[in-house]
């Protein structure tokens, strides 16, 4: 297995429970991406109680709180110790290719051969930057959300935050609060209240079964797998962080960034329509929750309510001279993508995505973990790793039982070369 994040650790626990021998190759250390590729103030979007992994969960006294990065790292490290995961650290994989009845793996921790390979290397290995990022003038600093760490690192002056999903709204909030003048380019996003009718939004989605919706039950799976994350944040006061909250502290908004010519940004005129569509989607979600709550007969609950519509200008500027606006930094909160540049197997499409059916890759003995909507709507969350791992570990066991193997041991590899 490649990757010792929460998804890889969930799989190693399930494989061990089935008696399948394996090793985990980790490019750095356990929870490496959490330690090296997240900004300092980031907290999990899901409540503490929702961090559920096979045989492991939250045991503190604040189940409705939201973990900080150090707390998240400690949780994942604790899980690795609890299950005695067979991890080889500092073993970045540089090459994988098909071999007789399996795969050959070249890594900085040694070379291996295996019958089955599970890729749990994450979905956020590289920033997904739009092509327009190449046209940003050299006088303006360019940072991805992976490179951004803290407001103190950002030069005084204006900041353009591109993207209005969870990462963009959180970064814009703390930069504006730290005294920067933030302009946000708003594209497609999904607005959501942090709490609704006295409960956390994720409590409702969990109880109503929305998070368990399977990949083979949705009409447009490609769309479901590329849908923006909910516009949420984890905070002690359980605030709803949306464009209205950002506008209240002085963040200004434009439409989607469409182009840059010289130092002039060109922006879409669809801002109001994009926000109206986001409001519509949010209210449809709340309608679903209300319908489920009525059928579940949960007793005395606060009455249904809706947030005020998103407040934006009718005619936001289409052209903005970034230098005149004293924009010194652009933060690209435009999403992430996995990196399979080391995978020499014919199972990657033209967009760099692994071709798979619920984590079963289009190559014999190759499996995938930890991607958005892999097998369920919650697949990319810590809470989704366990059930996906149980499903796929059973499929791996069946694959091994049907495959030719020597001796009586059930083994998926890997064997050092």
The fraction of residues in strands falls at: 15-25%
What's the number of extended β-strand segments?
Answer: 25
Uncertain ranges: none
Question: Between the first and last Cα atoms, what is the distance in angstroms?
Answer: 16 Å
Describe the structure.
The protein has 417 residues and is an alpha/beta fold. It folds into 2 domains: 6-125 and 338-416, FAD/NAD(P)-binding domain (3-Layer(bba) Sandwich), CATH 3.50.50; 128-332, FAD/NAD(P)-binding domain (3-Layer(bba) Sandwich), CATH 3.50.50.60. It is 26% helix and 20% strand. The protein has helices at residues 6-17, 32-36, 69-82, 166-177, 201-207, 221-226, 243-248, 271-296, 382-402, and strands spanning 24-25, 87-88, 93-99, 102-107, 110-114, 117-119, 126-127, 141-144, 158-162, 181-185, 190-191, 195-196, 199-200, 230-231, 252-254, 257-261, 264-267, 319-321, 327-332, 336-337, 343-344, 356-357, 360-361, 366-368, 413-416. Strands 21-3-4-5-25 form a 5-stranded mixed beta sheet, with no helix packed on it. Strands 8-19-9-10-15 form a 5-stranded parallel beta sheet. A 3-stranded antiparallel beta sheet has the order 16-17-18, with no helix packed on it. Helix 1 (6-17) packs across helix 9. The longest helix is centred in the last third of the chain and has 26 residues, at 271-296. The two termini are 16 Å apart.
């Amino acid at each position: 297995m490649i990757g010792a994040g929460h998804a890889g650790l969930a799989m190693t626990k399930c494989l061990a429970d089935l008696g399948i021998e394996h090793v985990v190759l980790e490019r750095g250390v356990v929870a490496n991406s959490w330690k090296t590729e997240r900004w300092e103030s980031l907290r999990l979007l899901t409540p503490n109680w929702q961090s559920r992994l096979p045989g492991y969960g939250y045991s503190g006294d604040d189940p409705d709180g939201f973990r900080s990065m150090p707390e998240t790292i400690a949780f994942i490290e604790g899980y690795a110790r609890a299950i005695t995961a067979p991890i080889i650290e500092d073993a970045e994989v540089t090459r994988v290719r098909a071999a007789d009845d399996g795969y050959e793996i070249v890594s900085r921790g040694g070379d291996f051969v295996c019958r089955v390979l599970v890729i749990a290397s994450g979905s956020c290995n590289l920033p997904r930057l739009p092509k327009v990022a190449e046209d940003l003038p050299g006088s303006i600093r360019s940072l991805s959300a992976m490179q951004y760490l803290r407001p103190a690192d950002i030069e005084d002056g204006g900041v353009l935050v591109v993207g209005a999903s969870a990462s963009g709204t959180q970064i814009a909030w703390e930069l504006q609060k730290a005294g920067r003048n933030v302009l946000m380019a708003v594209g497609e996003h999904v607005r959501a209240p942090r709490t609704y009718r006295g409960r956390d939004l994720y409590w409702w989605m969990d109880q109503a079964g929305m998070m368990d919706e399977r990949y083979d039950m949705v009409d447009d799976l490609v769309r479901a797998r590329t849908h923006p994350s909910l516009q949420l944040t984890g905070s002690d006061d359980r605030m709803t962080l949306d464009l209205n909250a950002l506008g209240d502290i002085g963040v200004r908004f434009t439409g989607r960034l469409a182009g840059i010519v010289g130092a002039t940004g060109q922006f879409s005129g669809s801002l109001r329509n994009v926000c109206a569509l986001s409001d519509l989607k949010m209210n449809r979600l709340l309608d679903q929750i209300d319908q489920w709550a009525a059928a579940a007969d949960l007793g005395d609950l606060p009455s249904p309510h809706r947030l005020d519509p998103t407040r934006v200008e009718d005619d936001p500027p289409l052209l903005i001279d970034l230098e005149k606006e004293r924009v010194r930094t652009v933060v690209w909160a435009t999403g992430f993508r996995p990196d399979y540049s080391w995978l020499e197997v014919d199972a990657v499409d033209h967009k760099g995505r692994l071709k798979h059916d619920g984590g079963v890759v289009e190559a014999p003995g190759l499996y995938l973990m930890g991607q958005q909507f892999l097998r369920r709507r919650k697949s990319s969350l810590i809470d989704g790793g366990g059930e996906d791992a149980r499903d796929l570990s059973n499929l791996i066991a069946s694959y091994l039982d049907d495959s030719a193997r020597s001796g009586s041991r059930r083994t998926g590899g890997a064997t050092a070369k």
